[in-house]
Amino acid sequence: MEERAQNFFVRAYARSIRRIQPKRNLLEPTSPNVIVNTPITELTEKIRKLELNATEMVHLYLRRLDSVNGELNAAVRIFGDESWYEAKQHDQYLRHLNQKSDEYRELHLSKPLLGIPFTIPHCFDIKNEVVLGGLKYRRSISPAHDDASIVKLLRQAGAIPLAYSNVSSAGLCWDGDCTVQGRACNPYDLR
How many other C-beta atoms can be found within 10 angstroms of the C-beta atom of residue 181? Predict the structure, then answer.
């Protein structure tokens, strides 16, 4: 009897998992370029070895974001030009750095995220950006005068802000509903 009950629950769980599978898996790359699913450690190593540059990284991630954001509503403000500019600065820095210097050898310690794009929830300050935090009344406030601490730390580590990600109103709910930018959808279950 116990084994039958266990099998029943296993089958029920398997059926429930099949029901929530999306029609199209938005986490799988649609292009042959699978760089967006490559671990950060591999990407930073390729950037340090000049096999890949930050500008290419930003371009690939912007393309990926463009291909899925219409269905997910995950990014509410994309920093296209700003991201390109920062990426070009990172590339110039790496090209001019002597690969035999101590600074180059210590690059993985001083800038462990060099050239890696990141998104940040729309409740953290980025200099010269208006932070809504999912609240309509914040549209009229002035832009931030400085980066939030987490953004500063990520930039110091060499990361490049790519976009503001959608957050629920005031960041109070887990479901992704936002009165300002609309609902952010789960890539596994778009309902």
Answer: 20
Owner of token pair 């000049």: 50
pLDDT 10s digits, 65-107: 888 888 887 888 899 899 999 999 999 988 888 677 777 778 7
The first and second tokens of residue 70, run together, are 């219409």
CB 69 within 8 A of CB 164: no
**Chain centre distance of CA 166:** 11
Contact 185, 73 (CB under 8 A): yes
Q: Outline where the chain has alpha helix (H).
A: 2-19, 40-48, 54-72, 80-96, 102-105, 107-110, 149-156
pLDDT higher than threshold 70 for residue 174: no
CB 160 within 8 A of CB 114: no
**CA–centroid distance for 12 within its chain:** 34
Packed helices 54-72 and 40-48: angle between N→C axes, nearest 10 degrees: 150
80: phi then psi, degrees, rounded to nearest 5: -50, -65
Percent of residues, the chain, with pLDDT higher than 70: 66
Tokens describing residue 180: 């300002």
